[in-house]
Structure formats: C-alpha cells, structure tokens
Amino acid sequence: MLWKQFFTPVKSYSVKEAAEFLTGKNPSDVTVLDVRQPGEYRQGHLPGARLVPMGELSDRLDELERDGPTLVYCAIGGRSRVAAQMLAGKGFKHVINMAGGFKDWESMQQGSGWTSTGDYTQGLELFPDDIDVRRALEVAWGMEAALEEFYRDMAARAREAGKETTAAMYDRLARFEVGHKAKIENRYAALAGSDAELEKKAAQVVEGGMTTEEYMQRSGIDPADPAHIAGFAMMMEAQAMDLYARAARSAADAGTAAFLEDMVQEEKSHMQQVGRLLDSLLEDQNHG
Question: Residue limits of the Rhodanese domain (predicted)?
Fold first, then answer.
C-alpha cells in the first residue's frame, strides 16, 4: 500500500528561523507548543515550551491562545506538522511548524551539524474542507489499509528482535485498522449501493504515492529506532483523524456525520495508545 499526505500546507520554519523568531520575545508573546510524549519532553525541550501530547491536543485546545503566534514542534517535525494543520483548521491565527524538530534544535545548539532529511511538503495534496464524503471514505479506506500493513510489518520486526510485548501492541493496533476498514466498507455500501469498487478507488487515490519505507525515509524516520516508529504511527493516526473530521463537516446526512465523528474519537484513542507505547519504549531505553 502506498502513502500520500492530504493536508493544506502550513508555514514551516527551520530551527535557525525558529530561534530568530523567538529571540527577544517574552513567554506571553508566543506559545511554544511541544506535542511529543512526556518522556521525550523530560529528556529535553525548548525553553518555556508547553507540553500537550499529540493524542491529547484536540481535547485541550481551550488551554491554548488562539490569536497569538504558536510555534509547534516534536522530535523531527512530522507530528508537529500534523498538529499545526489541526490548529490552523480550528481557527488558530498564526501557526508555525518547526521543521526538523527538537533533534535539529539540539544539533544547532551543540553545533553537531545534524540536519533532518525530511521534506514534509513533497507529495502534498490539497484536501479541501468540502471534500466529497464518498471520496473521503475511499481515502480513509486506503489509509487504514496502509496503517494495517505498517503495524503488521512493525509487529514482525519486533518479534525478530525478541520484543513480544511491543509486537503484541502492534498486532492489536493492526486489528483496530481491520475493524475500521469493515466500518468504512459498510458506510460506503450504504452511500454507493455497494463496496465492490472501494478497494480499487482507494488504490487510485494513492496512486503515485510512496511505500511505507520511502515515506519513513522521506520523513527522517529511523526504522531501527522504536521511538521514531511510534512517532511515525502517531503522525499517521493524526492524519486519519483530521481526514474524518473534515469529512464530517461536509457530510450531507446526520448518519454519515455521526459515523465520521465516531471515527475521529477512535483515531484519537489509537493515538493515545501509541503515545503510551512510546512512553514505555522511552522508559525501557532509559533503564537499558
């Protein structure tokens, strides 16, 4: 299964540009938002950064200033780009993603020369708020299929490394995606009269996209780093959640809107579970 990204672009700064932007500003002038997990935050963060993990963001928007500038960052820039898009879609006026994330920031501070490889706009496709619901379901089915394939691949890798507990978590997440695909198939059949063409349509939507390995490489993900993999999974769950939320706003009937809103809540739950997995992985690393 191939990947594509479906977000309206948001402004991104390099870490150097972000540092220049923050110079001379008081904490009340700008919200510096860290959307990583608590374990990542404890290992280091930008001065004055506010921690709101990605899986909690949609429930904690009222804690954040909507009218002033918000600089969002994560580990390497993938989760924060998704978070920035979500904030912009919720009416936040001036949202900036820090490309390269804390890893680039730390490298700049230490002068180590590390730079991220992620090109977060390549392959980007504009996805309007008034998306047709049938097309949204086709995209969603393709995304769920890609997530299932990704989780099964990660489970196999974890087992090869003797990490059965981690493998079991990935297996569980893969089963969730199977359930999501079945729900989408049922809703699609109700709208289109049949789900016979759904898989074919979904494949057409992501035609020209990237394989999982290519997407991970493009996003600067180290496939040998479990924490990177978990962060990547959270980014993709967030992308699915944003898709469902946009489609719900344009659904023509209450039943479809309610179905899509339920899917938003399920994706949020998945993000939180992957977040807990990431915290567990970081704790294991600290005690390893």
Answer: 26-114
According to the model, what pLDDT value does residue 120 have?
35
Clarify whether 117 is annotated catalytic.
no
Residue 104 contacts by C-beta under 8 Å, 6 or more apart in sequence?
14, 15, 76, 77, 98, 114, 115, 116
Q: Which of 15, 22, 74, 247 is catalytic?
A: 74
Superfamily of domain 11-110: Rhodanese-like domain (3.40.250.10)
Delimit the domains of the chain by residue range.
11-110, 133-287
pLDDT of residue 114: 39
Other C-beta atoms lying within 10 Å of the C-beta of residue 44? 12
Task: Write the pLDDT tens digit of every residue in 207-257.
Answer: 556 677 777 776 677 766 777 778 888 877 877 777 777 677 767 778 778
Q: 133-287 adopts what CATH topology?
A: Ferritin (1.20.1260)
